[in-house]
Amino acid sequence: MPVANKIDLKVKVVDNLTGDIARRLVEIEDKAFGDGGLHNEWLMVPMVRYGRVFVAELEGQLVGSAQFIRTWTGQDTVYFYGVSLLPEYRGRGLGTAFLNDILRALKNDGIRKVILSVSPQNQRAIHLYRERYGFKTVKSVAGEYGPGEDRLIMECFL
Ligand SMILES: CC(C)(COP(=O)(O)OP(=O)(O)OC[C@H]1O[C@@H](n2cnc3c(N)ncnc32)[C@H](O)[C@@H]1OP(=O)(O)O)[C@@H](O)C(=O)NCCC(=O)NCCS
Description:
The chain contains 4 helices and 7 strands. It is α+β, with helices and mostly antiparallel strands. The two termini are 19 Å apart. The protein binds coenzyme A (COA). Coenzyme A binds next to strand 4, helix 3 and helix 4.
């Protein structure tokens, strides 16, 4: 499902695991989150097969990915597991363009609510979620992922 947008970024759903796609997706996660992300194919493969994984391509290069799962916490609701761009592609509007297309695609798919968690230190991501898409912080959880790993829980309606 290609979704075009203004910057020459191609946004696609990963609908097969041919070639080394899973390994390349894990590489992007590793660069962004280390062990905190989808850091091996045992995590990435079910996310691709049973959740929804979007990729961002720029001039034929895979430069980012974002992952979602449907939840039991409400109707038409997804949990936004994460988004990451390769470090050299950050800070020039690509993340905004990527999420614009993704959220539009989810809405077209009937999704009405998106929930995510984010580190309170991750000001770039928080700014993006809040200012561009109207995500609101609904909870702050100390030690969500273990000691020192606090998270804000944010939600938005599409
Ligand atoms: C989060 C991420 C996907 C955003 O993509 P990006 O291409 O870097 O973001 P953009 O260039 O579109 O900028 C997004 C906004 O953040 C702002 N921003 C950039 N650095 C910032 C900072 N340190 N503090 C606050 N805002 C910041 C930008 O100005 C822009 O806002 P604006 O449009 O109002 O000017 C990308 O930075 C990334 O992969 N980060 C590492 C992984 C990660 O943290 N993922 C999110 C948690 S799951």
